[in-house]
Design a protein that fits this description.
Shape of chain C: elongated
Number of domains of chain C: 2
Number of helices of chain A: 5
Radius of gyration of chain C: 22 Å
Shape of chain A: elongated
Chains: A mainly alpha (about 140), B alpha+beta (about 300), C alpha/beta (about 300)
Order of helices and strands of chain C: EEEEHEEHEHHHEHEHEEHEEEHEH
Oligomer: heterotrimer
CATH superfamily of the largest domain in chain A: Winged helix-like DNA-binding domain superfamily/Winged helix DNA-binding domain
Strand order of the largest sheet of chain C: 7-8-9-4-10-11
CATH topology of the largest domain in chain C: Rossmann fold
Number of domains of chain A: 2
């Protein structure tokens, strides 16, 4: 089962970020499971026609975040996401996103009830796609 | 370097072939004219001229050789550079692990070789035809080949002049053509040289100056600034020589414009009995007056033819 | 590990007549990098490249390439530098095979497999005459001739100019393939920001003969930011903002593009009491255009160094 990366130039998102986002999304939706192998830096660079340093940047970010791991001589694999952040740090990362979403919803004249309903719907979709095994403790 | 020579030969041999054919045609025409002269003599025509008895020495042959060799040499030199003048093609030629001098030498060897054969073969054939007994009813001496030979050698000088004209990065085309003017001066000088070795000197000196100037311009891509010193000096030398042509032209123009009566000149002539007479021109007082150097007697001739 | 840069210029300047084509250029190209040289038409990129290769004398200043002085480049160094010209000019009367044979005689390290590989990648027939080739095919042939001697430094002057998308992609693929060897450096000038975004590690931007930026591509993208401020009514007049590139006013909105957006800038902007202040990400094209385009409210000259600021 090979995962297909797609990148686009001229986007507001940098290429390395597009790759990390795609890996995150794939893991979240279950397209990539723990233990799956990702292509090597060189192979992916030549497939997508981008500079290998960009791929290396993406992979190092993912490694830093604990999503992937490079095993000597064998390749790059998805690993269990290690808890790299403390609870405080994780909340600090999440809070601005919640603020933005709620603020936008308010500006668009959604009521808090509607917002809650929409949020629950989205959450259900996500947990279904993931196969119902949450990583967060 | 051999690869480059071969490439140059391949690139320009068609032009050399064309020149060769043209020159052969011109020489054959001269040969035929000479034969026609003899035929005319046999039939009692009165246009016989001793000077044209030996076709090698006739005015038409020497002037045709001079003109052809000059133009052929200059065009060859000019075209060898001009075909690569596009700056990216020039960069393609220059950017390789071969020194600038060697690249220039390769071009020069190929170009001069093509000239030598293209102009030399028909000339050689012509000389051989006149030398072989049974073709021309006139004496043949090897020294008779010297005039055409010196013009043939002058073509080498024109080759460098043509190269220089194409190389120089000067917006004013006339300034670029001054190299040709220098070659023209050399040509005039050698055609009036009484001995062959003098003509050879002119050719060697002219060739050295123009060749160095061409090499210098080649080394700096046509700009004046980056040249080696010897190249710069040679360039100045050739430009000075070339401007003599401009000066000469200016003088001729001036002379034709000025009214004739603005100046007079006179000539001295000697009669068979030893009397020296001064002949002014235009003739004063409408009659030829002669005055002896000793101013002893004035003899007036009656007016009329 | 601080190696000597492959290309290094010091105050490189060239005038044509009275007009400067390149002025005071100080550039450093790290070994093993893919370095993109950007700028508008006529900003002096080709002139710089010609000076680096010793094809043109600088008016002032100088530089080194592979450790040698650019004004006195030895012939052995030329074997280690590959140069792909803008117009892909070759001798029209030669055919593809003859071009390869001709070029191979000059280089001791000629790799025939590479030449045939590139020529095959662009689908060129060996017997095709150069004057019958299309522009993209000629570009492929020139690339083959440039790559076969396996040069340490590859200088490409606008390699994708006038190429159709397929040929363009083939060329960029070749560049990515070249990065397999970490000792090879690629220095190319281009207008195609999509290609630059794909392959470049570092960029340098030349604007009207003056260097405006020389840094990693990521640094450039992170430094040029767009800030959007929303106001209830008409936006207030703008105070002095260091690093402002462009300001765009609309009904109730103020959009600013600036460099090095930091805490001080944010404070100054918040002092205007906007309803909302948000950072909008920019594509490389937009960042480039606002960096080089006509100035809005202010003219700003910025020189970035490689260090993260």
């Amino acid at each position: 089962m090979k995962f297909n990366f797609t990148i686009s130039t001229g986007s507001k998102v940098a290429i390395y970020k597009q790759i990390t986002d795609q890996v995150w999304m794939a893991v979240a939706t279950g397209k990539l499971a723990v233990g799956d192998q990702l292509p090597s830096v060189r192979a992916l660079a030549e497939e997508l026609v981008v500079n290998p340093n960009t791929i290396a940047h993406a992979y190092s970010d993912l490694t830093r975040d604990g999503l992937i791991e490079a095993r000597a001589g064998r390749g790059v694999f998805i690993v269990q996401k290690r808890k790299v952040y403390t609870a405080e740090e994780a909340w600090r990362r999440l809070e601005p996103l919640l603020d933005a979403a709620i603020g936008e919803a308010m500006a668009l004249d959604f009521t808090p009830q509607e917002l809650k309903v929409a949020f629950d719907q989205k959450l259900d979709l996500w947990t279904q796609a993931k196969g119902g095994s949450p990583d967060h403790e | 370097m051999n690869t480059l020579i071969r490439k140059e030969l391949r690139e320009h041999f068609k032009l050399a072939l064309l020149g060769c054919a043209l020159f052969a045609f011109i020489l054959v025409q001269n040969y035929r004219e000479c034969n026609a002269l003899y035929a005319g003599l046999a039939l009692g025509a009165d246009n016989w001229n001793n000077a044209n008895a030996q076709p090698l020495l006739s005015g038409s042959t020497t002037s045709a050789t001079g003109l052809f060799c000059a133009i052929f040499g200059a065009v060859l030199g000019w075209l060898q550079i001009h075909n690569e003048r596009h700056r990216d093609l020039w960069a393609f030629l220059i950017h390789r692990p071969l020194s600038r001098t060697k690249i220039f030498a390769a071009k020069m060897i190929a170009g001069l070789g093509l000239y030598a054969l293209g102009a030399g073969l028909p000339l050689l054939g012509f000389i051989v035809m006149t030398w072989m007994p049974g073709h021309i009813a006139a004496p043949f001496e090897w020294t008779m080949t010297l005039p055409v030979l010196s013009f043939y050698l002058s073509g080498f000088v024109f080759y460098f002049a043509g190269m220089l004209t194409s190389l120089r990065q000067a917006r004013w085309y006339a300034s670029r053509g001054l190299g040709l003017g220098a070659a023209l001066i050399i040509s005039i000088a050698l055609s009036s040289a009484p001995e062959f070795w003098r003509a050879l000197c002119f050719i060697l000196v002219g060739g050295a100056i123009l060749g160095t100037a061409a090499w210098g311009s080649f080394a700096s891509n046509g700009y004046y600034a980056g040249q080696p010193t010897s190249g710069r000096r040679a360039l100045v030398g050739s430009l000075v020589l070339g401007s003599l042509v401009v000066v000469g032209l200016a003088v001729a123009l001036l002379e034709s414009v000025l009214p004739r009566e603005a100046y007079t000149w006179s000539r001295y002539q000697i009669t068979t009995d030893g009397g020296i007479y001064k002949m002014p021109s235009p003739p004063a007082n409408r009659s030829k007056s002669r005055s002896s150097m000793a101013r002893r007697c004035w003899i007036r001739r009656p007016a009329g033819p | 590990m601080n190696e000597q840069p492959v290309i290094c210029t010091r105050d490189l300047t060239r005038y044509f007549g009275g007009k400067p084509a390149v002025e005071g250029l100080n550039l450093e190209v790290p070994r093993g990098s893919v370095f993109a040289f950007l700028g508008r038409n006529g900003s002096g990129k080709t002139t710089t490249i010609r000076m680096l290769l010793g094809l043109m004398q600088p008016t002032r200043g100088g530089g080194t390439i592979l450790g040698h002085n650019i004004c006195a480049l030895p012939t052995a160094a030329r074997a280690r530098i590959g140069y792909l010209t803008e117009e892909h000019q070759l001798y029209g009367w030669m055919n593809v095979k003859e071009c390869g044979d001709f070029q191979s005689r000059f280089y001791p390290r000629w790799n025939e497999k590479v030449f045939r590989g590139v020529v095959g990648h662009f689908h060129l027939r060996m017997t095709a005459r150069v004057k019958d080739l299309s522009r993209g095919e000629r570009a492929g042939l020139c690339l083959g001739l440039t790559l076969a001697p396996e040069p340490e430094l590859l200088i490409l002057d606008d390699p994708t100019l006038g190429l159709d998308p397929v040929a363009c992609r083939s060329l960029v693929e070749s560049m990515v393939y070249l990065t397999r060897r970490s000792d090879r450096t690629i220095f190319f000038s281009s207008h195609q920001l999509a290609d630059v975004e794909r392959v470049a590690d570092y960029i340098a931007i030349l604007d009207h003969s003056v260097l405006r930026a020389c840094c990693p591509l990521e640094t450039f993208r992170n430094s040029v930011q767009q800030v959007r401020l929303r106001f209830p009514g008409a936006p207030p007049p703008l105070p002095e903002i260091p690093g402002l590139l462009q300001a765009f006013r609309a009904e109730g909105e103020l959009r600013l593009t600036c460099v090095h957006y930091n805490g001080a800038t944010e404070t100054a902007l918040r002092a205007l009491a906007p309803e909302q202040l948000e950072l909008v990400p920019l594509s490389l094209e937009d960042a480039f255009i606002s960096y080089l385009g006509d100035r809005g409210e202010k003219s700003f000259i910025l020189s970035e160094t490689e260090a993260e600021l």
